Amino acid sequence: MSDCIFCKIAAGEIPAQKVFEDDSVVAFRDLSPKAPVHVLIVPKKHVASVAAFKAEDKDLAAHIFVDVVPKLADELGVSDAGFRLVINTGDDGGQTVHHLHVHLLGGRKMTWPPG
Ligand code: DGP
Fold it and tell me: 5 CA distance to ligand 1 centroid (A)?
């Protein structure tokens, strides 16, 4: 999508501190980190939210959770202590950027409920 900030980051048109990239996914540091480790895992394809996932996105979803999350958590040093994944979805879910992204947060003790 031409006016989507995460599409622009994925395309390299806007700079970001990338920590991972392959053919279908990019991960970069959140501009406004809520924890010592806070990265966003983003499909390069524009998918508005998990609510907009289609059957054709199953491989992409599996790739994010089976391949990318464990690898990144390991590389970012939060696998052993633990980490939190957050997917804000829609207005009530607190989603502000309408391109699907998985927050990976770690490096401190998380509280619950998140508020
Ligand atoms: P959410 O509320 O789940 O939609 O989270 C959006 C996150 O995206 C928020 O934590 C801040 C981050 N963010 C927004 N714009 C940019 C940007 O241009 N670059 C980076 N690195 N992060 C951004």
Answer: 9
Cα-Cα-Cα-Cα dihedral sign, residues 24, 30, 34, 39: positive
pLDDT tens digits for 58-100? 999 999 999 999 999 999 999 999 999 999 999 999 999 999 9
Q: Where are the domains of the chain?
A: 5-106
Considering only CA atoms, which of 70, 97, 84 is closest in space to residue 37?
84
96 Cα–ligand 1 center, Å: 8
Q: CATH for 5-106?
A: 3.30.428.10
A 10 A CB-CB count for 113 gives 4
Ligand 1 mutation pick, 5, 28, 89, 97, max ligand atoms within 8 A of CB: 97
